[in-house]
Amino acid sequence: MRKYIFVLLFFSVSCSDLDKEKQEKNVLVLSEQMKTYKNEFDAIKIDSISVLKLSTYDVERRVKQNYYSDTLDVLFGQKMDDFKRMRRMLGPLGKEQIRLKNSINEELLQLEKLHSDISKGYGKRESYNEYIQFEKNKVNQIKVLYDEYVKMRAQFLEMYNDLYTELDIFSKSLEVKQ
Description:
The chain is mostly helical. It has one domain (19-177): Up-down Bundle (Ferritin), CATH 1.20.1260. The protein has helices at 2-44, 49-66, 74-120, 128-177. Helix 1 packs antiparallel against helix 3 (74-120), helix 1 (2-44) packs parallel to helix 4 and helix 2 (49-66) packs antiparallel against helix 3 (74-120). It is rod-shaped and about 100 Å long.
């Protein structure tokens, strides 16, 4: 009888160790995904949003103050509309950038805490799988935020590269004429 109890006890302990290793591995995989997102985000984030806001506002201001025409230039009007729309994208882009940065850092911290809890056996062991699933869902949400940020950033940079230099030179030439 004692042998059976010992075997049963040994089996239950070894099964919990297998679960623990699997749970730790799952958390480490999530952590690596988040570190990858963080590295990619750090590589592409726009550091100078406030400088871009000021420079685009200056171009728009110079055109408004110095452009006088008695005829309508449709092409120029479309470019200015696109330029204004691009400038308005900077606000949401900056907010998404801050939100994404905070979300990534917070999630990395939560995953680190979860890994520590699992490895030390703190908290409700039977709930670890639920906690891991919850964190996995958060990682997926952050991935969606990241993809949306990349898309918005690409749209902004495309418009910026197409319009800024041309309109900046044009606005400075208007200022010289005055």
